[in-house]
Amino acid sequence: MSGATEARTRKVALIGWGAIGRTVGGALAAGEVPGAELAGIVDNRPLGDAVPAPQLTVEQALAACDLIVEAAGQGVVREWGETILASGTDLLVASTGALTDEELSKRLLAAGPGRVYFTGGAVGGLDLLQAVRAMGPLGEVTLTTTKLPSTLEQPWMDEATLARLRSTTTPVEVMSGTARDVPVKFPRSTNVAASVALAVGDLDAVRVRVVADPAAAHTSHVIEASGPQGAYRFEVRHVPDAANPATSRVVPYAVLRSLAALTGRRGQIL
């Protein structure tokens, strides 16, 4: 009798069929993630026959799948995160900005028997920051995010702020604060801030600046961290997604990389 065991195929449901979900779902349907099968798509709009898997409700997805990928925004994490995990289904979160709600974050990390995972999204270096954190707290961590002004407009902004965004010809700071408060104000643009805070282990330790630059051909994120352990600087410059310029084109591929790690693809850097 052979000692080898057959690898288990993870049945995956996607919540969200937008810029991220379409790329992730297309790759899953094409068999590009060994060990993962797209079993369903959850979306609050009728999707018709153009999608590569059945459209399901969240309840149907929980019955049919053992892994759900959130690609629809922070509201989904708040509304369904604990329910998904309590059902025994694993959850991969793309909208890490939801974790700025510290009580929600604690509940998700304590929930089960399903397991919660987070993708790094549009930024790198988080694995190293987590390793450094094990040596002790960092003294200073900053994140500067720069995007096109149009992607940073928010419903809470007054007319003066909107006029300044729309008329600026040079880079202008839109907001500064901590990773606890900035992502709440920019729910589609600053998931990176929450991801850095997750790696560092402290929402209040990460200082965040959001900058609007009308000449920004790329979305940029600059992370700087220092302490007794050393000094670290990571800078990424991404092409925005054509369908949703508020996010970077790389994000769905970061989700796919996380999925490949969860399904056991060899050669992954963990």
Automatic annotation (TrEMBL):
Domain named Aspartate dehydrogenase: residues: 169-255
Pathways involved: Cofactor biosynthesis; NAD(+) biosynthesis; iminoaspartate from L-aspartate (dehydrogenase route): step 1/1
Active site location: 221
The enzyme's E.C. designation: 1.4.1.21
Keywords: NAD, NADP, Oxidoreductase, Pyridine nucleotide biosynthesis
UniProt cross-references to InterPro entries, sorted A to Z: Asp/hSer_DH_NAD-bd, Asp_DH, Asp_DH_prok, L-Asp_DH, NAD(P)-bd_dom_sf
Entries under SUPFAM superfamilies matching the protein: Glyceraldehyde-3-phosphate dehydrogenase-like, C-terminal domain, NAD(P)-binding Rossmann-fold domains
The keyword Iron is annotated on this UniProt entry: no
Any matching Pfam family: Asp_DH_C
Catalysed transformations (reactions): L-aspartate + NAD(+) + H2O = oxaloacetate + NH4(+) + NADH + H(+); L-aspartate + NADP(+) + H2O = oxaloacetate + NH4(+) + NADPH + H(+)
EC class (word): oxidoreductase
Listed Gene3D superfamilies: Dihydrodipicolinate Reductase, domain 2, NAD(P)-binding Rossmann-like Domain
Listed name of the protein: L-aspartate dehydrogenase
Source species: Streptomyces plicatus
Gene name for this UniProt entry: nadX
